[in-house]
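Bump. Still looking for Phosphoenolpyruvate-protein phosphotransferase structure tokens.
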Amino acid sequence: MQNFQGVGVSPGRVIGPARQMPKPVSEPPAGEQLPDGVSVEEATAELKQAATAVHDELKSRAERASGDGKAVLEATALMARDTMLLKGAGKLIAKGLSNQRAVWESAASVSEMLHNLGGYMAERATDVLDVRARIVAELRGQAAPGIPASATPFVLVAEDLAPADTATLDPAVVLALVTSGGGPQSHTAIIARSLGLPAVVAAPGVDDLPDGAEVYVDGAAGTLVEEPGDAERSAAAAWEETASLLADFDGQGTTADGHLVPLLANVGGAKDAVAAAELGAEGVGLFRTEFCFLERDSEPTVDEQAAAYQGVFDAFPGKKVVLRTLDAGADKPLPFLTDATEPNPALGVRGYRTDLTSPGVLQRQLEAIARAAEQSEADVWVMAPMISTADEAAKFASMCADAGLKTPGVMVEVPSAALTADAILREVSFASLGTNDLTQYAMAADRQLGPLAALNTPWQPAVLRLVRLSAEGAATEGAAAERNAKPVGVCGEAAADPALAVVLVGLGVTTLSMTARSLAAVAAVLKTVTLAQAQELAELALSARTAEDARSAVRGKLPVLEDLGL
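Sorry for the wait, here they are.
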């Protein structure tokens, strides 16, 4: 029996056969030349056809996906048509290399460039290599790399998954997900949570598990056990009962003493919103509007945007729907809006800042939101991402007012916004913390990197202090003792961790927004503590020396987590 320890990112306890991801597409031989009788023009045309086929296949999968998966697939599809990738390959073909070798070398150069940029662009480096493998497989007439086919459910084990793979995980076939790489805020982790799949990342050694070996996975504890015994089988059976209990979510978030904590959903479009409403969400805390802009060469019209927003509003009549305005740049480049030559896109013109270089896009988006809101019964709130100063907050609030939108807000994901939350919140009606970005910026740790997983967790005391500062900043001027005069929510992945959700409430957070599948678990745990107890647990976490100390101390005070398998 072997035990493997990683980082648990999505709860659940299951037993099943391990299936390893297929080995990557083999590298074409170094210096491989054009075959005899094949011209440069013919080889280049064949490469472009293969790239188009990969693009179209990924785009087709995106159309069948939704939410996070849809966005990931669309972004990866764009890479298959990347001008730098194809032009670089074309130049190498002109020098006599085969098209397979040419695209291999060109992708390596593009990937290295993106990786060196760091931050979000390092994630795009993985996309380029995934696309490269798919193009080479297409040129060879082989099946594209991906999740293995199986007639029976299995535990998927891999070094890491390409975004295109994580986006199409089928919970009916894949029982759990375990990777040796990745981090707690990687796309692999986020997609697993959205699908409700037990998942463990950053678990060294699991790639060496024999295919077909029976394994036990605990997605909360972050463990994988080969050849599970009676204890593991009992735990897996107990989880099945727990899952049915969590299905009884009554749609309301509240502490044991009646303190209301609205539980909202993160969505990417109308399909997600309808599903979230069916799962009991009290509204939408994060509507990622950039999904309307991806996979386009030009800005969508006001009418097109309004129609897309309307679908989400209609799923929640009379309830709050919070839209995040276009979060373009960095990991979500748009050809008509972002500058691909930025030396450090994660710290560049992204989010709200795109209005500096492309004025008019944000104004038209606000016009579309207002038009859809007029035709809806939803309570529409609007927030801007990447706000860093009070001046930016004031400018955004003015733009919302000009568009006829009454409830402007900001995303707190830059440490400066948390540190000056009192000034920023005097300019707007609310704030929402994007803990994924706030954590990686505060800790200077790329959230995609497995070796930095220990740094890149919102349990870090430094991050929790920034959350508290943001909540304290919601006090009205001249009434500093009155906390939360303006709402401060959390819409990052931290809200989906039931133990951390209790801490966030204790820190003064007023609403929690998460993947809809996490609503029931968070609600169940909140109901076991009073507001005063949540505040005590928050102090316990804040005073901890390390993130792991904070997590362990809080979980030790919440026995319900073990009872529920969380």
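Residues 477-484 have pLDDT under 50 and may be disordered.

Edit: fixed formatting.
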